[in-house]
Amino acid sequence: MADLGMVPSLRCSNSSLCKTRRLQYLFGNSAKQENLSSWVPQNIKKKECVYFVESSKLSDAGKVVCECGYTRQQHLEEATRPHTLQGKDWDPKKHVQQMPTDAFGDLVFTGLGQKVGKYVRLSQDTPPSVIYHLMTQYWGLDIPNLLISVTGGAKDFNMKPRLKSVFRRGLVKVAQTTGAWIITGGSHTGVMKQVGEAVRDFTLSSSYNEEEVVTVGIATWGTVHNREGLIHPSGSFPAEYIMDEEGQGQLTCLDSNHSHFILVDDGTHGRYGVEIPLRTKLEKFISEQTKERGGMAIKIPIVCVVLEGGPGTLHTVYNAITNGTPCVVVEGSGRVADVIAQVAGLPISEITISRIQQKLSLFFQETFETFSENRIVEWTKKIQDIVRKRQLLTIFREGKDGQQDVDVAILQALLKASRSHDYFGHENWGHQLKLAVAWNRVDIARSEIFSDERQWKPSELHPVMMAALISNKPEFVKLFLENGVRLKEFVTWDTLLYLYQHLDPSCLFHSKLQKVLAEEPERPASGPTAPRVQMHHVAQVLRELLGDFTQPLYPRPRTGDRPHLLLPVPNIKLNMQGVSLRSLHKRSPGHVSFTMDPIRDLLIWAIIQNRRELAEIIWAQSQDCIVAALACSKILKELSKEEEDTDSLEGMLVLADEYEHRAIGVFTECHRKDEERAQKLLTRVSEAWGKTTCLQLALQAKDMKFVSHGGIQAFLTKVWWGQLCVDNGLWRVILCMLAFPLLYTSLISFRERKLQARRGLLRVRAFFNAPVVIFHLNILSYFAFLCLFAYVLMVDFQPTPSWCEYLIYFWLFSLVCEELRQLFYDPDEFGLTKMALLYFSDFWNKLDISAILLFVAGLTCRLIPGLLYSGRIILSLDFIMFCLRLMHIFTISKTLGPKIIIVKRMMKDVFFFLFLLAVWVVSFGVAKQAILIHNESRVDWIFRGVVYQSYLTIFGQMPAYIDGVNFSLDQCSPNGTDRYKPKCPESDTIRHEPAFPEWLTVILLCLYLLFTNILLLNLLIAMFNYTFQQVQEHTDQIWKFQRHDLIEEYHSRPPAPPPFILLSHLHLFIRRVVLKIPAKRHKQLKSKLEKNEEAALLSWEIYLKENYLQNQQYQQKQRPEQQIQDIGDKVNTAVDLLEMESLKRSGSMEQRLSSLEEQVAQMSRALHWIMKALRDGGFGSEEGLPTLAPQKTSEGQDHELDGKQKAEDVGDTHHVNARHLLYPNSHVTRFPVPNEKVPWETEFLIYDPPFYTDDRKDKGLVDPVGNALEALAGISYNAVDGPIDRRSFHGLYAVQDGLPLNPMGRTGLRGRGSLRCLGPNHTLQPVITQWRRNQDGAVCRKSVKKMLEVLVVKPPLSESWALPGGSREPGEILPRKLKQVLRREFWYSFQNLLIQGTEVYKGYVDDPRNTDNAWIETVAISIHFPDQSDMDLKRLNSHLHSCDPGMSAQWQVVDKRIPLYAHHKTILQKVATLFEAFY
Question: How far apart are CA 257 and CA 280, in angstroms?
Fold first, then answer.
């Protein structure tokens, strides 16, 4: 047997993974089926009757059955043989044995589609931990955020159509939105059928990607009809189940709309209710489990939903309320639900036996006659106890109290119950918020939690903010930001580490991060233990995504040091306060509070996981928003290149495009407002994003739409023209280039006034430094170079180089120097390796290097006399490469540039086409050559025949011998000996005729021409046409995007053209190498602003970003689809309001009629009294006396629950805890005692309480067990009986039959119970208090009143705290509980403090251990330390020590939410009143 006590803590960080796991299982993973088939029989058992005892009753078919309900044939063989137990009565404990279960696996309902469920048959004694393990591990269910237990009528019942619709919609909505499990009885009848149909309706209307609703049916195996088909010893995958409602008889069918079935077996047949105890245990076990998500752990909450129902339902509701489970009762569903709903708003004193009897007669008309008096009393008591805990009871009245949806009522019930629980401090509110986050119900959080009743500090929201981020709940993130959470305070270094350590495992960034970690060398064993994922690992992956041109976002920390800020952040107040999320937000000295830009860090974390809504909310908070949007676009595009999932890839590209549009939108706003400032945003160095610029990011991300924006193109044009005005005509520039003295005229205009006004050297320098001038000078120079090169090759290529050729060498040397300058030009200090990679990543640079190397090769051959001709050939080919370089120069042209782009794209199509063409050319050429020519050994002629001739055939040059018409032996070489003639084809040497099959070669030729000339060439034309149309739409964007590279190249190029550029190179060499002056990038393309200027610029950008977002929202609202949706929502709201108004009017009318009926009844009673008084006074006679109709109480009167009504109702003055039906720590059940029957003076003829006396271990001073008069004769009541004081603080008490009577009335139990003695059991409760003080020593106040702290203790195995008092040993002064937390040497001093203390209460204690004959009375003494320097207080604190390891003691703030026993809270309230302190 496996260890069943250990249940693994399941945690699924991603719901999609869990869903995938379930789907894989559903569709038949054979390995999992084998594991299930081996695990289930070992751990889960069934029950079988092993001895046949004939019953006096017959089966429905008239057959003889056993006492267990099964026939003889349904028993095992050994059960019908002679047995050792023969002749004995049938006993389930002896005659039923456990065996390995034989029914489990997958379940399919015949004729109802392919929906696959799960089922298992198990013993009623199966531990809940085993069932939970099966559900979560083998059935693949994710741990629920909520458990909904639906109970009610087991038989079919009628509900109003609207109420049925509202219930179904709300139940499934709360289950689907919160990730809840719904637990029912699983049968196709009653409330279970209603739940199943609700799930069915949801399944039919939901989309394929929505999570399925987990509906677990827990039914009795022996009552399931057609269960034989579920039996298979090794499991059924799947089992087919037939629903046969007509032939089910007294049994029930399983509901086809449930997803999982737990069939509880006790070895019997036809007995209902077997599953109830196991269901209760399982629900309790699940509700005690903890679910961790996003660093936040919550216990799984449970709620009970009640529809209709009978006695079993009332018992279920009573147990649920007693165990602290909130219940939602649906009024209007009938029977028990309506009885509870009708009296739920009444004071306890008005919930009388007669009223309950009246309600039962109304709602149980058919079965009311079967109710005995004892049963009515029991129902009254249970309903009183249910209604008394109003905080756990919610009545759903459709259309009333503003209630419209069951889902809201269920979640409000859970929050109301959570709110009523006692917690220290503000844990209560935090727990409610955790529940709302776990359920993903932001609407509930807005309406119920973030209200005026509670003001949240931002730091208190940090843990739930973390949970909302990790679990991807953007609406909650937005809510927390609206309620004061500042990301700059929330995001700390530890927070970031925690977020990256809890990345979604399915995201690509997580796998990339794991690769980086795997490549990192292992830490030494003696090194500090720390999480493996560090921020410098994240920075490494981010730099791969953003590009090497950026600096690492997070530096690698030095050994033993905490990371510091990248740069000091101005105007940011560092708040070092925080809250604990597993000590996450607990700062310690040396811990960094913020990274460079917390909003940036959070945005990156959201983007790398492709979380659209979350990233949108965070981006709206960002400061450097344009750079942030472009960086997001770059990251997403890089991730999409490695993403394998098609849906995720498309989603990333769509999101990248969306962020590019956001960058464009904000920049458009900026450019429209101020063109100069907008251009500063383009070139500003962003320290937060790795010292890059907007323009660099856009270019690296290939955001063509952004770069092609008019404002950016205007900026590039401005850079292109340098200091010249952009409206200068190009002819003017060229004219001044050829005749520079024209610069001293007004032919050329400059942007700067000083250049425009002056006529000196500055104008010349400014003119020739303009990129447009440099470009045209280089064009002229390059054309001159090509002309000179062509002249030398064609005219002046001598064995000895001429001066023209030497000039070409010199010219080429200047080009080589320029290429080297471009290679080593590193203004951003990337390093040589990075610059080399960047240089060779450009196609034109590769072409330049190839041309130069080919020229060097040709020059080498040219200088060797024997290779002169070879050198000329190489140089001629090199000339072609230099000419191709002109295409790059012409890309600046708005006319030629787009056409060159189209040509480049078509070149790719040509390469793909050549691959297809080569297949046909080679195949036809080889076949033709093999058929025509025999054993051709010359390689060159083989190539000609296979490739060259086949290729030329496409263009119309037919092979000479393909058909034998032009056959001539004179044109070929018979043996292939003539190197200038092809070898003759196969021929008849005698007749000199071709011998090859001409018909075959002609057919091959026709097919070849058909596929190549018609199919492939037309395919190429179609490809060109498609490429042209596709590129033509975007050529303008592509040209504008690629235009930047040329502008940047000539912006950084020396002004002199080759070969004069060597002078500039010499100047650079002296500056860089000799004088060591570093290179600097021109401010026009990358500039670092001053802090004040940068802060002002960013503030301006944020302001315009807000304008952009507002415009986007306005445009979204103006869209026709949105307007139609808004109109539809308004119409639906109006319809709902009208329906609610109608229901309210009808409800109001009912209330008015009820009030009128009550007033008429009062008038009737008044008239009756008047007539009786007149008749008794001698006025009138009996004759003619009108007979008044008897008073009838309004049936169905609607009593609304008052949310502000106190738990202790007016008139509910009797002891309550002493009448709990189940006596603590025992299996004894009290006789039900309703409120009206508590006083001994009230007649209660059927009162017959059981007698119970616990056999205590300390028998020395304990009254005897039993109620024999001889044993009780020696007890003296109402006096001091030896060491025991049996006097009551309430005076003399009655003694009946030798037993004292509880002065507070009946309790439903006779005897001593678990108390020590009969009569009063005296206890002492010391209330030790001090003033609560802040760090400065001042007394804390709340609502003007001072705040107290009280010393409380927590006993072992208890969830509640208590005052350090209780029973005392005879002759002792201090209670035992106090002795357990105080050292012995302080006992005497504390006795003196007790003597000096103030008595605040003396009397009866309403304790659940009280009985009719034994009860607890206490004396509460207040010991207050007003001064924190009090020596007694210091000694007390120093002597606090728990002798019992399970006992703990601490000081706690006095508050009404303090989790103490109820009677202890009453005492504490009296102490607070005594000192006029806050409570």
Answer: 22
